């Protein structure tokens, strides 16, 4: 196998040099462009091999994107919690049922919040009037009524 053969698909002499191209690095649904990269691309399967400096820049951009995303999510969790006038403890009790310091860890970006919790927080940010609905659901009055009904059916 020669230096110009593709390591991915094995195509002979398929690796073509490129310079000055921009590539997208992504994490979940978040994206960031990394400009002015150099390397080689396979003309058969489109496999990309960056040169060493470009590979380092691309990897660093990916790491920075992940760190930035975690920090933004943490800041959003804190902002929304405060907007809704929740303490960290009440937020855990009402929204996640996790450990007593779960929100503290989310807000310091030590732990990524579960996606359903993050989506729920963003929904409550847009529709804070749903907090009352959420509190009612957590009280389980409707479930308790169904349980009483079920018990009455068994007794009859």
From TrEMBL:
InterPro entries: Lambda_DNA-bd_dom_sf (IPR010982), MqsA (IPR022452), MqsA/HigA-2 (IPR032758). One of its GO terms (molecular function) is DNA binding. Pfam families: MqsA_antitoxin. Gene3D superfamilies: lambda repressor-like DNA-binding domains. This is XRE family transcriptional regulator.
